[in-house]
């Protein structure tokens, strides 16, 4: 993780989500598990909108092999949720996404983390190289802070 606190506008891909009442815990704050859902939704929307070929390679899929989240401040329903995404690293068979979650009208940064996909052959679960067209699309969103 980094000490740098990027603004939502610093991310090359952004998505707006709606929090739900069931995202809140008994203390009235969005539960930590919901942030992983925000990460997953942000990554999948990014892939659908900017890298649809990631879903078109028969026999190859991407597994989430690692994720982490650090929380900075609480958010609560009915806050709007904004997810900022960048491609932090593209390897031979893996891609690491850097994400931040912002909440409310002021879009205050409430969490940040990493999400790692490894591309695998569906029938063997063996890691395979990221298909070239997918890798090229991912690299267009590669940003370093």
UniProtKB/TrEMBL annotation:
Family: Belongs to the 4-hydroxybenzoyl-CoA thioesterase family.
Superkingdom per UniProt: Bacteria
GO molecular function per UniProt: fatty acyl-CoA hydrolase activity
Signal peptide: none
Name of this chain's protein: Thioesterase
Keywords attached to this entry: Hydrolase
CDD domains per record: 4HBT
Annotated organism of origin: Alteromonas confluentis
């Amino acid at each position: 993780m980094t000490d740098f606190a990027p603004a939502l506008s610093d991310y090359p891909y952004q998505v707006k989500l709606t929090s739900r009442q069931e995202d809140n815990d008994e203390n009235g704050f969005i539960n930590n598990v919901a942030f992983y859902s925000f990460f997953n939704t942000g990554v999948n929307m990014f892939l659908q909108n900017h890298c649809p070929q990631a879903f078109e390679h028969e026999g190859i899929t991407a597994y989430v092999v690692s994720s982490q989240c650090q929380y900075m401040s609480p958010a609560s329903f009915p806050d709007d949720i904004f997810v900022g995404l960048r491609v932090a690293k593209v390897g031979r068979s893996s891609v690491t996404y850097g994400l931040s979650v912002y909440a409310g009208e002021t879009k205050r940064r409430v969490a940040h983390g990493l999400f790692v996909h490894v591309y695998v052959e569906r029938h063997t679960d063996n890691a395979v190289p990221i298909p070239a067209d997918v890798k090229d699309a991912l690299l267009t969103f590669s940003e370093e802070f």
